[in-house]
Specification:
The protein is of the alpha/beta class and 404 residues long. The protein has eleven helices and 20 strands.
Length: 404
């Protein structure tokens, strides 16, 4: 920020906490807003500043020269209504855009910063790097591009928030500029800054998000909780469940070596059944349930089935099954690209394992080679320090590019 402004007039710190950001710049007035009194209990408020205890979205003042903040990372699933709906309506009305309903909380803070700053103001926030590519943030990016504001994004190469699986960034939006220039940087563990070529490592850019084609990807099944609906071989025997009570499933491809191209029964037994992996999905979705499986379900403690999915299923264990995929793909990976397995055992994809489906039989080995030949790592936004992730609609784009 100092490269763009030597000093500021009035600065708003959104979610100020203990006001630590107040001691890192030159300004005339500082206004910190913090809703959590426990976080602000040890605040060191500057002489030319004040701390207001309220929700920053209720804070009425505007026309700030700069808005800064480190908003909490809260997923859209966990945002309560009517707060969420009211906030979305307000942002849409005042910014003149249409937000998507799957935006996480930090996007609302970013929009609020744009609203609170004056026409030459600066917004500087610590937010997930994913905002530069995720479809949920596209209305915000489109608005910024339409206004031709300059954007600088500093991506941290190393984790800055222990236990949080997301790549952090410092994003700076300068509303005084009409160049519309986006610049990207990497910040290493010694805080040295290096210029990036763009959002992704590859000159081809981030893999696009596309709709279904002749072949399509589907997220892994989320039946309610894997601790109840998926069992190890030992657990299956312990509860007396027969093979007719379960179907094979894969909840992770981490146990499968990359040298294995086809998930045969031999490979399934070695790397999942004998390895005590959760490899059996209970058939609780059917109308006919065996007495043994019924006894297992009746014995499940209430706290284990107290999930959003279970609460919205009637009865709580009757999930909607997915079709059997022809290919199994691990959505997360650490280098080059995800694992791709031909599904010869008819396993169901669960959790972080994506499935590839088609109404017709696919040339699975050629499609597998097509997917394995793409350097996905260089064309996605890193999820965390080493973890990369391909989204379902990005996988659709790769499937759509396959020439049968």
């Amino acid at each position: 920020m100092r490269q763009r402004r030597k000093t500021f007039g009035t600065v708003l710190d959104m979610g100020a906490g203990d006001c630590r950001f107040a001691h890192g710049g030159q300004y005339t007035n500082y206004v910190g807003v913090e809703i959590d009194r426990k976080r602000s209990k040890t605040a060191r408020i500057p002489i030319n500043g004040k701390l207001i205890s309220t929700c920053v979205f209720r804070h009425a003042w505007r026309n700030y020269d700069a808005c800064i903040g480190n908003p909490p990372y809260v997923r859209h699933h966990d945002l309560e209504s009517p707060w969420k709906s009211d906030t979305v309506v307000r942002i849409e009305r005042e910014l003149g855009l249409t937000l998507k309903q799957n935006g996480n909380l930090y996007l609302y803070f970013l929009c609020l910063g744009l609203l609170k700053t004056n026409e030459r103001g600066i917004v500087a926030m610590v937010i997930p790097y994913e905002w530069v590519s995720r479809p949920s943030a596209s209305p915000v990016r489109d608005h910024i591009e339409a206004c031709k504001w300059d954007v600088e994004v500093y991506r941290f190469r190393n984790p800055v928030f222990p236990g949080v699986l997301t790549t952090a960034s410092i994003t700076i939006i300068d509303k005084s500029s009409t160049n519309g220039k986006w610049t990207f940087f990497d910040v290493d563990q010694e805080f040295k800054v290096r210029r990036r070529n763009g959002v992704a490592e590859s000159h081809e850019g981030v893999i696009s998000y596309e709709s279904r084609g002749n072949a399509w990807a589907l997220r892994g099944l989320s039946p309610g909780t894997q601790h109840v609906f998926t069992l190890t071989e030992g657990e299956r025997h312990h509860y007396g469940l027969k093979r007719t009570d379960v179907v094979p499933c894969v909840t992770s491809l981490r146990r499968t070596p990359r040298s294995i191209q086809v998930l045969t029964w031999r490979a399934f037994k070695r790397h999942y059944v004998d390895a005590s992996a959760r490899c059996w999905l209970i058939k609780s979705h059917g109308k006919k349930i065996s007495p043994t499986l019924r006894a297992y379900l009746d014995a499940v403690p209430t706290k284990l089935r107290d999930t959003w999915t279970c609460r919205n299923q009637k009865p709580w264990f009757r999930f909607r099954p997915h079709p059997t995929p022809q290919l199994l793909i691990g959505s997360g990976f650490t280098c080059y690209g995800p694992k791709v397995l031909v599904n010869a055992v008819g396993a169901r994809a669960v959790g972080s394992v994506w499935g590839v489906h088609s109404e017709a039989k696919l040339p699975v080995r050629r499609l597998q080679r097509h997917l394995q030949g793409i350097d996905v790592e260089r064309r996605v936004v890193g999820h965390a320090r080493y973890l990369k992730k391909i989204e379902v609609r990005q996988l659709n784009a790769l499937l759509n590019a396959f020439d049968e």
